[in-house]
Amino acid sequence: MKDIDFDKLKKEVEAELQSIKTQEEIENFRLKYFSRKSGVLNDILKSIKGLSIEKKKEYGKFANQLKIYIENEIEIKKESLKMEHIKNLEEEEKIDITAPGKKVFSGHIHPLTHIIRKSVDIFESMGFEVASGPEVETEFYNFDALNIPASHPSRDMQDTFWLDPKTVGPGFLMRTQTSSVQVRYMEKNNPPFRIVCPGRVFRKEATDATHEMQFYQIECLVVAKDMSLVHLKSVLELFFKKLLENEKIKVRFRPSYFPFVEPGVEVDVICFKCLGKGCPLCKKTGWIEIGGAGMVHPKVLDSAKIDTSEFKGFAFGMGIERVAMIKYGVGDVRLFYNTDMRMLKQF
Ligand code: DAH
Asked: Is the Cβ atom of 177 under 6 angstroms away from ligand 1?
């Protein structure tokens, strides 16, 4: 057998140790020397079996020293790699508590949702209860129960999306007004009550700067004893003062016609920009038309089997988009729906 050059072997080991950079490399290195099957040290021990006792002792001693040396070095290397790793982590995961914070982008509710919520809040603060009805409505609640019979010309005022009678049966439509909730509520609840109904309505109209095929309305209905236009006016004035955040807001009524109220009125709010002086917003009239209202028609109360000799009611309805356009100075209703962030971010 050739002499074993332990010095050379040790130098090789040292060089290998130098180049080790990872825990995995350490493991490979350990296996190379200590593996039972093919480890270098085992090979040495096997190869000295047939040698003389002195040589065996000498080589055995060297081999043992080498083994202890390698074992130690492995431990040292492992430890130093661990320390290095921790040091790197400190560097990589360092938190600079003095660095300026990253701005978290938080969205906000849509301007229409804002107007709806605010309106509902105001009515609730006046003791109103929120009521709702379906968007797919029957002809009865949308028209007939509101004193709008089939032959009545007022049906022409609203172009209706009728649902296909072959699919869903006759008389179904997309509601054209939140007034449809009135009789639904009255059928199930006894007066006195005051309700507010926000919701989406649909009209088969050509879309332009002031018309959308779907839009939001808010309706209010009060039925109690001795109700009059005076109550209606004071409720609306208080509501608009709060909604437009201006104590100077006034409301005026102009005679109008809606089949479900008698008398019916058009509701104007004093222009909150010029307070009646006349400006571009109110087209120099000093007033802004904002909704319809009136004393609930006895026929509507009859439809809901409410005793008209005892109870009277008033109702009001307005379009949310219109209020938002006026309040925020938005010139085109379609801007509320086209999800253009440049527009929406302004609120
Ligand atoms: N529903 C009417 C419309 O869509 C608005 C309206 C007018 C509602 C008069 C009312 C009312 O409650 O009394 O044009």
From this structure: yes
Domain with residues 111-344, CATH architecture: 2-Layer Sandwich (3.30)
Q: Which of 316, 320, 322, 323 to mutate to test the pocket of ligand 1 (most atoms within 8 A of CB)?
A: 316
Ligand 1 site-directed mutation target among 260, 321, 322, most atoms within 8 Å of CB: 260
Q: Does the beta carbon of 202 lie inside 6 Å of ligand 1?
A: no
Domain definitions of the chain by residue range: 6-92, 111-344
Look at residue 260 and give its three-state secondary structure: coil
E-state strands within 29-120: none
CA 252 / ligand 1 centre spacing (Å)? 16
pTM, to two decimals: 0.72
From residue 274, alpha-carbon distances to 245, 284, 291, 323 in Å are 14, 9, 20, 16
One digit per residue, the tens of pLDDT, for the chain of length 347 reads: 567 788 888 899 899 989 999 989 999 999 999 888 888 888 888 888 888 888 888 888 888 888 999 999 999 999 999 999 999 998 889 888 898 988 888 889 999 999 999 999 999 999 999 999 999 999 999 999 999 988 887 777 668 999 999 999 999 999 999 999 999 999 999 999 999 999 999 998 888 988 999 999 999 999 999 999 999 999 999 999 999 999 999 999 999 999 999 999 999 999 988 999 999 888 999 999 999 999 999 999 999 999 999 999 999 999 999 999 988 989 899 999 988 889 988 88
Instruction: Tell me which H or E stretch contains 240.
Output: helix 229-243
